[in-house]
DNA sequence: CCTGTAGTAGACCAGTCTGTATATTAAGAT
DNA sequence: ATCTTAATATACAGACTGGTCTACTACAGG
């Protein structure tokens, strides 16, 4: 093989970075090419699907990276609230380090490209699912032995097979993910980390702790 | 004044709609013009600041509209959880009615334009602030008499002046807003309302209810 | 040595982008 | 009736878009 073999990966990484900070439509291929140091021909050789394919792969890559980091942080502690707080701290560091340009690597693309491209939308949804799964597992590991509330325990016929509160944990993981995503969105827009701290401070109540 | 006098407002409304569904960079001025039935000259007459000014005004308008709707819904009930659930229902209807194109009218622009334009970013931040204020007032009206937790009551010197739980209510409103924003983001990306329902179901726990 | 091919390099295309400049029209004032 | 101004209507400019095309380079196998 001629010259370099890492061109493809470099392009995806560059694209992921730019999409992360600017979104899909605000990022031109020329910018990706310039920043990645590759000519146009190479792009369409490696990505015959063009910008759309590049975005799908970039989203998947960024999602994997953050999922890995999330797993590492969450598995490092026994306290579910503590684990999630460390995840929030990680996101806060990313925000600060990038002058509030790097929030959620998926959200921008999800919002500004899913109207255009169904494949991109699906890729983003898949990433969110994977994150939610990690969070749910984390919660299951530590708080599944609780009665898991019961405010809506009427309309569940016999859905939960194995664990008793599995459906409830999924719901809880959805809420946790939503709160985190919203906090990152607010923090990025306000250029201020306090939304992350607020969510962190209220995680205890959200997870059903007596009062923190 | 010649011809029409509503051209300006029509343009802002059209722009707000398109920015809402597609974001800032994905929406071309030609599309705004075509959909609003106005020529280019009129746009730069009414908005000498060009696309940026149009976006700032569109964001403010959309933010005002939703703030009004939010106020109406929240003032209609005495139960804070019930009120927020109705707000979630409203957002869910908007999503469904628009085939999941209309989520938060601010988020898309906030994410894909605040890297480019400081004025747009500020406009978005202002809208979020206004929404948060509405939520905080709503919470203050109904739950301010609670002890307002205290899991992190160590590093607060003497911030809260007037009401005892005011700072705590602000924090809580931030978390509520974040959770709602995140839920809308997830719902739009997944094309599925369940994140909204999940947040609704957990609002009680989040607001400090015993386990309701 | 020669050829096939993976990959690179960049010119090029048609279309679109935001923004500007120049008419043209309609109303209000004098 | 005329002059001014608010507003509309287009034509146009220059830059940039994503995408295609062809030429070229470097390596591998025969």
What does this structure look like?
Two copies of one chain form a homodimer. By secondary structure, chain A is mainly α. The first copy, chain A, has a domain at 59-147 and 162-206: Tetracycline Repressor, domain 2, CATH 1.10.357. Helix content of chain A is 68%, strand content 0%. The first copy, chain A, has nine helices and no strands. In chain A, helix 1 (7-22) packs across helix 4 and helix 8 runs antiparallel to helix 9. The first copy, chain A, is elongated and about 55 Å long. At the A-B interface, helix 6, helix 7, helix 8 and helix 9 of A face helix 6, helix 7, helix 8 and helix 9 of B. Chain A binds a DNA duplex (30 and 30 nucleotides) through residues 1-5, 7, 28-30, 38-46, 50-51. Chains A, B: Residues 5-65 form the HTH tetR-type domain. Chains A, B: Residues 147-167 are annotated as: Disordered. Chains A, B: Keywords: DNA-binding, Transcription, Transcription regulation. Chains A, B: Residues 28-47 bind DNA.
Write the layout of secondary structure elements.
The structure is a homodimer of 212-residue chains.
Chain A: H1 7-22, H2 29-36, H3 40-46, H4 50-74, H5 80-97, H6 107-113, H7 118-143, H8 166-190, H9 194-206
The first copy, chain A, binds a DNA duplex (30 and 30 nucleotides) through helix 3.
Pfam families (chains A, B): TetR_C_13_2 (PF21993), TetR_N (PF00440)
Organism (chains A, B): Saccharothrix tamanrassetensis
Protein name (chains A, B): TetR/AcrR family transcriptional repressor of lmrAB and yxaGH operons
